[in-house]
Fold this sequence. Notes:
The structure is a single chain. It contains no helices and five strands. By secondary structure, the chain is mostly beta strands. It has a domain of 42 residues. The chain has a three-stranded antiparallel sheet with strand order 2-1-3, with no helix packed on it. It has a two-stranded antiparallel sheet with strand order 4-5. It is elongated, with a radius of gyration of 16 Å. The C terminus is likely disordered.
Amino acid sequence: MPIYEFRCNGCDQKFETLCSSTNVGSVTCPKCATNDVSRLFSTFFSSSTSSDGTRTTSSSSRCSGCSGGHCGSCH
């Protein structure tokens, strides 16, 4: 099962939870227990090594840790 990120529309708490895609609608906020939550887009990071030994990294362009998406904390 994947880990999804959510933001509570009631208390603005951001949290992650492990759930199947069919159970996303039953997620509740751990802080205020409401089910009025919005799923956030998650960031990802990948790393690979080419045949010549060069290592490359990549991450998504949107940071889930800040509202602007480019706060500099997600490098």
